[in-house]
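Class, study these two lines:
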Amino acid sequence: MITELELTVMDGTNPGGVLSEHLRAFEEAHQVKVNLTILAWETSWTDIVKYGLYGRGPDVSEIGSTWLASLVSMNALRPFSNPEIIALEPESFLPRLWENGQYAGALYGVPWFADTRLIYYRSDVFKKAGVDPSRAFSSAEELEKTIEILKKDGVDTPWLVPTDRTLNNLHILAAWVWGAGGDFLSPDGKEILFDQPKSLEGFCNYFRLGRFISARSMLLDDNLANRRFRQGKAVMLASG
């Protein structure tokens, strides 16, 4: 009888069926059947908590790295054994990402992928306005000055970020908090830091840019904000 494995991943992890192709090769190589379930990021935390509460869930699941400690405390994850860790070849991973899978001295998760937030910009508009990109993105203050220059130059929407409710809002905002020298929690996770002066400075630097977003570009989710930038209707976009 063929062994069946249950795997859950988040939407967006299987673009164009790429993951499915790899799973078919894995099934043939190991003579197993992998049942793939795709969860929506917006509801996946609730789904995965249910796995822990009822003691029934997939054999392998993609999770958010910040969920790991909570799931371990619910006894929803098991640690990797030493032979398994050796087989995973930890040296093949970026050290910081590998650390995210550890809790209380044990390894519970393996890096799946890293998602980075960037500021995209129209180089042609920058050139026309005489803006030097290396200076424009050197600090939060220089970024704000650059946006002001573009606005005075007649640009309708010099700055754009998703403003509707989206999971990426906090991810984008974090860059401003860290850039100001702040943070959200202490290294041991026992003390909040987002109410401290440096963190609040980062919050203010970020939200102050909202005045440069035109009315027609408000209340956009990630996809709509990305589309508006691709259509040339914004000069800069913070996105993933």
